[in-house]
Design a protein that fits this description.
By secondary structure, the chain is α+β, with helices and mostly antiparallel strands. Helices cover 25% and strands 31% of the residues. Bound molecules: 2-acetamido-2-deoxy-beta-D-glucopyranose (4 copies). One of its GO terms (cellular component) is extracellular space.
């Protein structure tokens, strides 16, 4: 009996993703990293080429045994799946995207980084900032040599700059007590759901967000925000003054963020968060962050440079979740925004906001393709990303630590859900719970470090 296998195994290094199609015995083996969907898109062309090779092998093999009248429905299905999953990435496979960055821009970016690092060094001299300055100086020399020799690998240089940039961001002015407040950084375990409740309006409201005010020492307030009009917009937030009221869906107050759901201050998408009695969210139809302070009933807005919106870079993993381009999160003393830009090849960018000024203080660029994850949340300056396992299980598989600029690709923290789709995940530093909007169900989990 012949067996037809597509073997997916993991070969991951920071630098390379290897995919080979190989004929072995009577099956064609493709080694495909399960984290292939997290590959830096800069390598997309290479990956695609290797997948094609694999595909060619499969087709050749297919033709060979076709004569013997054996059916290979499974393999064909797998092939189809591979092709289908690559489809969304195809638009990135254009030269334009890679060529937009010229040497001049590299120099400019480098200069900016250098100045920031130098300021940090002046304010707070350390070995880290000193080393960084040296490396930046070397990088500048290398770019100068690129000019001279006219031979260079732009992608390699960009990747190097990204790492340097992340380190510069980290050594900027993060409050000094930040690390100590988050002594043990990486979470190790997520409980079974400790809260499971349908949203207070209707099961048909499958997208939105919910949680508890994320500011330390804030009043214990629970909030619920359901999106209307094609699960895209919202203009009210339902507030509860106690857990009991929340669980009983009573004594709530609907606060108006905007006068209608198509007002320019209305909410777009499910990335909303509440911090300091203030709602932070993507503003209606634009790449801007809005904040609405419920206490003072005042709105602010700020442009998010280069952020993809309107389902350009939504969360996908299993199937794309519309209107999830911009995800707001909060931890002990900052609000964070998670999005993706073309400049970073559709990979996740994390910015730290000053919640009062509503301006960006730091920006890190990750290697994680935004369309390859279901959702993200922030704990103690660490970004976590999840992926779909099945209808009733989700898994944290990736973390990015903004205080070290390091990515952790090896996490496996499974947790349960009651339905397949996740519109929002957010972590609350006050009760250390993770809040999930799960196809209209509101779930919460305890987390452990
Ligand atoms: C190929 O077949 C041999 C003999 O049946 C077996 O020992 C070996 O494990 C097979 N290799 C693979 C990759 O399946
Ligand atoms: C997670 O942590 C809780 C509390 O410490 C413990 O009871 C549970 O067994 C842990 N689960 C796993 C899978 O480690
Ligand atoms: C909201 O307004 C209150 C009252 O003025 C103020 O104390 C609080 O800091 C404000 N919060 C934000 C995030 O703007
Ligand atoms: C944020 O805004 C405040 C007030 O306008 C300003 O003092 C501060 O320098 C800004 N920070 C950044 C990083 O732009």
């Amino acid at each position: 009996m012949l067996s037809y296998l597509l073997v997916f195994t993991v070969i991951v290094t920071v630098e390379a993703q290897i995919i080979k199609g190989e004929q072995k015995n009577d099956s064609c083996m493709c080694k495909i990293s399960s984290s292939i969907w997290a590959f830096p898109t800069a390598r997309f062309e290479g990956v695609q080429k290797q997948l094609q090779t694999c595909e060619e092998n499969l087709i050749e093999y297919h033709n060979k045994i076709k004569g013997s009248n054996v059916q290979m429905p499974k393999m064909e299905l797998s092939l189809k799946n591979i092709k289908a999953r690559l489809k969304p990435f195809e638009y990135l496979d254009t030269n334009g995207l890679y060529n937009t960055l010229h040497l001049q821009q590299l120099i400019q970016e480098l200069d900016e980084m250098y100045n920031t690092a130098r300021d940090a060094q002046k304010k707070n001299p350390s070995k880290e900032t000193n080393d960084l300055l040296k490396e930046l100086t070397n990088a500048k020399k290398d770019v100068q040599n690129m000019y001279k020799n006219n031979i260079f690998n732009l992608e390699t240089m960009k990747s190097r700059l990204r790492v340097l940039n992340n380190r510069v961001q980290t050594c900027k002015t993060i409050p000094e007590d930040f690390r100590s407040a988050c002594h043990q950084r990486i979470i190790s375990n997520i409980s079974s759901p400790v809260v499971t409740k349908l949203n207070s309006i209707s099961k048909s409201y499958i997208s939105g967000a919910w949680g508890r005010d994320a500011k330390q020492d804030s009043k214990e307030r629970y909030w619920e925000h359901c999106l209307v009009s094609g699960n895209q917009y919202g203009n009210t937030i339902r507030m509860y003054n106690s857990y009991e009221d929340f669980m009983a869906s009573k004594n709530y107050k609907d606060e108006y963020i905007a006068s209608s759901y198509y007002h320019k201050n209305a909410v777009q998408g499910s990335g909303t968060i509440l911090y300091d009695n203030t709602v932070f969210y993507q503003c209606y139809g634009t790449a801007e962050i809005c904040s609405f302070n419920i206490t003072t009933q005042t709105s602010k807005r700020m442009k998010l440079d280069g952020a993809g919106i309107d389902n350009k870079f939504p969360f996908c993993y299993y199937s794309c979740r519309d209107w999830t381009d911009i995800d707001l999160e909060a931890d002990q003393d900052a609000v964070w925004v998670i999005y993706a830009t073309e400049e970073n090849h559709g990979n996740i960018v994390v910015s730290r906001l000053d919640p009062l000024e509503l301006n960006i203080t730091h920006t890190w660029k990750t290697h994680l393709f935004k369309r390859s994850v279901t959702s993200t949340f922030m704990v103690c300056g660490v970004l976590y990303a999840t992926r779909f396992v099945n209808t009733y299980e989700e898994e944290v598989f990736y973390a990015f630590d903004t205080t070290t600029g390091q990515e952790i690709n090896s996490l496996s923290l499974p947790f349960e859900k009651v339905s397949s789709g996740i519109a929002n995940l957010n972590y609350n530093p006050v009760d250390r719970r993770l809040y999930m909007y799960n196809d209209g169900y509101l779930l919460a989990y305890n987390t452990f470090k």
